[in-house]
Design a protein that fits this description.
Shape: globular
Strand content: 5-15%
Bound molecules: zinc ion
Helix content: 40-55%
Number of strands: 15
Length: about 600
């Protein structure tokens, strides 16, 4: 169970105790050379917990707990020394390898199987027999350098090429099957026949963040179908969580604080070849929230650079929608290619032409507005309303008027008239769009589920908040069975256990769907400066959303003349009072937070 000394030292070098501790001690604040805060190991009201960045140690003058960054993690997360090293390794993206790693042996076999296969495909491409694949790549304009950098390969037209070669290398074929390299066919009796899945295709290895091969994409070289054959989802490959090229592009994205998202493998490679290296691609699917969040941790802006065809345009529209729903600071812009895909474009016109297109990428709102205008050459009232609906989603008035101005120039309508119409639209909107009760409930559900997921993110990273959540959040009704059962279980845990740690939490959840939700929360590097404040925000937003929905509902009911007006008016009055109360409460809580900050 030993971890090499060099890795331990490497992690010791990069793990700054003053960065690690605040994740668990939100109250930690700089005082002179040291940091002080409330001790996480005993209950106290005045801070006696000290962290020294110079000495890289912590100490509590109350309960006398003390140690270095490893002992801190080990104590607070209840981990062995080795596991605390692994924990910090994950936090700082340093791979901790050892002979008896807690990583399942089977998983290690999978990685080995994929690595060896990738080598075999790559060497075959460069061999005499791989000429067909190499010719194809060169014909498409892929350089030798790119072929080596992305370790492209070729699988010949054979039913047992990779099967035989893996076998020769001592790889268990059931492993190759689990990794999606082989398919199987039931034969006579108990016989099972396995054969190569990738045949006569150019191979693009898909690597994870740590440079491990986790899947393959295989492209036909003629007009065969499917054009791309990709590895199925396996134990080591979940395509929604992976971006093609990220292992290479990571440092360029961090440097430029910008990530460019293209649609395919060749687009990534083409951009790289022309010096644009902050480029990644989702894997044969629409962009996912996990992918956006992954990028949001390493850059401040994402530029979508999709194909100029209809599919590319639709993909951009849904990515813009998705981005709006995600709670992230990362900005999004949409670059519009005049023709073809990024690969063809950059090959034809060169890197600087493509960079110009990237630089001219549109803000999402402009993109959406132009989308409506493009599809509707004749402007009538309903088009104006669709445009207003887009502008209406913007929170700030100043921004809204800037877009009104943009529209007025675009439509050659005076800004005053348009602004006037917009305010009319805003005033009339709730009257005209009568929302039946059922719709309110559906919308409500979505929002509540989203809020609970946010809450889980927070709770699984700051388990000390679980007991408060069990009390505060029970008032909301949850209609999603998985989310509901996770929350119920958390309430139980809060009731009977004093000390809740992340590692312990997993023991309580056995259902795979629950575990999936939880691990997405836990594995995610999530940290907030003030967990308490984040907590209150989720709670207050949810509460205020609930109240607003009720108010809207009764307002609409009254306007539509359905139901008994007098009882609706009473309800309305009741909910308005609730809203007042909440407003006072929010005011108080923020002055409370501000007071804490000032002290
Ligand atoms: Zn203490």
């Amino acid at each position: 169970m030993s971890i090499s000394k060099t890795v331990i030292e490497e992690i010791r070098q990069v793990s700054r105790i003053e960065e690690v501790v605040p994740r668990f001690v939100p109250s930690l604040k700089k005082r002179g050379q040291n940091y002080t805060g409330l001790c996480p190991f005993h209950k106290e009201k005045t801070p006696s917990f000290v962290v020294s960045p110079d000495k890289q140690i912590f100490h509590c003058f109350g309960c006398h707990a003390g140690g270095n960054v490893f002992s801190f993690i080990s104590k607070i997360e209840n981990l062995s020394f080795a596991d605390s090293v692994r924990y910090l390794g994950r936090m700082y993206s340093i791979e901790v390898r050892d002979e008896n790693d807690s990583l399942d042996d089977r998983l290690k076999d999978y990685y080995k199987c994929m690595e060896i296969s990738s080598d075999i495909f790559h060497r075959y491409l460069l061999s005499y027999n791989g000429k067909k694949g190499l010719d194809y790549l060169q014909m498409r304009g892929i350089s030798e350098k790119s072929i080596n950098l992305f370790k492209l390969g070729y699988s010949p037209d054979s039913w047992d090429f990779i099967k035989t070669n893996l076998d020769k290398n001592g790889i268990d074929l059931s492993c190759a099957f689990d990794c999606g390299l082989l398919s199987r066919k039931e034969g006579a009796g108990d016989a099972v026949h396995m054969y190569d899945k990738f045949r006569d295709r150019v191979i693009f290895p898909i690597l994870d963040r740590f440079g491990r091969v986790i899947a393959f994409g295989g492209r036909v070289m003629d007009n065969g179908e499917p054009k791309y054959l990709n590895s199925p989802e396996t134990k080591i490959y979940q395509k929604r969580k992976v971006l093609y090229g990220l292992n290479e592009a990571h440092k360029y994205i961090t440097e430029k604080k910008q990530a460019i998202i293209v649609e395919g493998y060749l687009d990534v490679i083409g951009c790289f070849q022309h010096g644009i290296r902050n480029v990644v691609a989702p894997l044969g699917t629409a962009l996912t929230d996990q992918q956006i969040l992954m990028l949001s941790r390493i850059c401040s802006e994402i530029v979508l650079l999709f194909d100029s065809d209809n599919a590319g345009f639709k993909a951009a529209v849904s990515a813009v929608e998705l981005h709006k729903q995600i709670n992230t600071d990362v900005k999004l812009r949409v670059a519009l290619l005049p023709e073809g895909d990024p690969f063809d474009y950059v090959s034809k016109y060169g890197g600087s032409a493509l960079i110009e297109i990237i630089n001219n990428a549109e803000e999402p709102v402009i993109f959406q507005l132009n989308n409506v205008l493009k599809n509707n050459p004749v402007i009538d009232t309903s088009i104006i309303k669709s445009l207003f609906r887009i502008i209406d989603t913007i929170e700030y008035g100043t921004e809204r008027s800037a877009y009104i101005k943009y529209l007025s120039e675009k439509l050659k309508i005076s800004n005053d008239i348009l602004a006037d119409d917009f305010s009319k639209y805003k005033n009339n909107a709730p009257v005209k769009e009568l929302v039946p009760e059922r719709n309110i409930i559906i919308k409500n559900d979505e929002y509540i589920i989203k809020s609970f997921r946010e809450l889980f993110n927070l709770l699984f990273n700051y388990p000390e908040l679980i007991s408060s959540a069990a009390l505060d959040f029970s008032e909301f009704s949850l209609n999603d069975p998985v989310i509901k059962s996770i929350f119920d279980r958390l309430c139980e845990i809060a009731a009977f256990s004093d000390e809740i740690t992340i590692s312990k939490l997993f023991d309580y959840f056995t259902d795979s769907k629950e575990r999936e939700v939880i691990s997405s929360c836990v594995l995610f590097d999530y940290s907030v400066d003030e967990p308490r404040k984040a907590y209150s925000e989720i709670y207050l937003n949810l509460k205020s959303f609930n109240i607003d929905n009720k108010i809207n509902y009764y307002n609409n009911l009254i306007k539509s003349g359905d139901g008994e007006i007098s009882s609706s008016l009473l309800e309305l009055e009741q909910w308005r009072k609730e809203k007042e109360k909440l407003r006072d409460f929010v005011y108080n809580i923020y002055s409370f937070h501000n007071n804490i900050l000032q002290h």
